[in-house]
Amino acid sequence: MYSYFLIAAMALTTMAIRFLPFVLFKEKTPAFIMYLGKILPYCTMAMLVVFCLKDVNITSLSGFMPEMIAVMAVILLHKWKHNTSLSIVVGTVIYMFLVQRIFR
């Protein structure tokens, strides 16, 4: 029974968080919220890049080359195709191939 209450509490909390902006901003969305909506996706992506590259070892060739090649592949592919999912999948495949086969 405890599990059901826990799931219900999590579902209600999630729904409240999702519906709260629509209740609060019925009339007009404030400029600050619009600004956050424009800037936060870029901030999130930058934070993910920093998180992914924080442990790169730049003292050895095999420590940073797979990451740099994969990052460049993601950037170039995204500039070419403008498809985030494709860029992430291909970059991951390239990185895993390089780490497991080339830079052991």
Describe this structure in words.
With 104 residues, the chain is an all-alpha fold. It has 2 domains: 40 residues; 50 residues, no CATH class. Helices cover 83% and strands 0% of the residues. The protein is elongated and about 55 Å long.
Q: Considering DSSP H and I runs of 4 or more, what fraction of the residues is helical? A: over 70%
The largest β sheet comes out as: none
Content-based structural category: mainly alpha
Order of helices and strands: HHHH
* Count of folded domains: 2
Shape summary: elongated
- Tally of strands: 0
Number of helices: 4
Low-confidence parts lasting 5 or more residues at pLDDT below 50?
none
Strand content: under 5%
Radius of gyration from CA coordinates: 21 Å
If you average the pLDDT, what whole number results?
92
First-last Cα distance: 50 Å
Task: Outline the fold blueprint.
Layout: H1 2-24, H2 31-53, H3 61-81, H4 84-102
